[in-house]
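Hi Q.,

Before the meeting this afternoon, I wanted you to have the PXL prediction in hand. No need to reply - just skim if you have a minute. The sequence and ligand are here:
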Amino acid sequence: MSYKKVLSVQDISCFGQCSLTVALPIISACGVETCVLPSAVLSTHTGGFSGFTFTDLTEDMPKIKAHWEKENILFDCIYTGYLGSKKQIDYVKDLFSLLVNDGVKVVDPAMADNGKLYYGFDEAFAKEMASLCALSDYCLPNITEACFMTGVPYKETYDESYVKLLIEKLCELGCKNLILTGISYREGKTGVVVYENGKYSYYEHDKMSKGCHGTGDIYASAFVGALMNGKSAIDSAKISANYVVECIKDTLTEDNHWYGAKFEPSLYKLIEKVRA
Ligand code: PXL
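Predicted structure with the ligand bound:
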């Protein structure tokens, strides 16, 4: 496998096991060079903490890009997660010119969960995010994000036709390949839908009794790590789903680890699968 170089663009939440503090170790551990462009620095993530600091780095983004351009730095993959504003989304669109010819764009529209947008986001932002997803090769929304981007009303319980409607609407927006996470058709089970080259497939696994903050970031990072190791999208989606289940199991053994998922103890299992 050739050595790959990924750029991840999202915030640094200094504490809280999400965004870049998850992407950098996971993708690196998969044997892939991982470069970062932090869009902001926060003392913690915004999910459950109050009084967090927020230093916006939006205006650094084009300067960093300009320097990399001068240095002829190119990437095999650009993976974006949590972004804070329309302007950041526009800058990310510009960054895609730093991809090699067959470079891969992976967009996780990390902005909502459980039927609600994260703190600070509104519907206009969701539409902007949809325009970034339209440029992606792989877009990884959960149901809530898919609903906000398409305008389809959010449902807690649904069947395959609802998910297929979301896929159809996301494709109408311009999305190509989709990995829909947290798709649960029956009690006690959840899974991922992979829609690639017009083909729908579903990988189902056990649903944990509780979810954890940041698992979307862990999932997307593992997906990028697997994909960059030459795994197919379906295999990458399955490997990442199994890894997230392990992370949640490791986290649920402790009552007060509420702010994130323990992704480190099972990292070796991910690497075994990704490098196999
Ligand atoms: O996990 C997504 C995420 C990333 N970054 C920040 C967040 C969140 C989710 O709440 O607040 C700053």
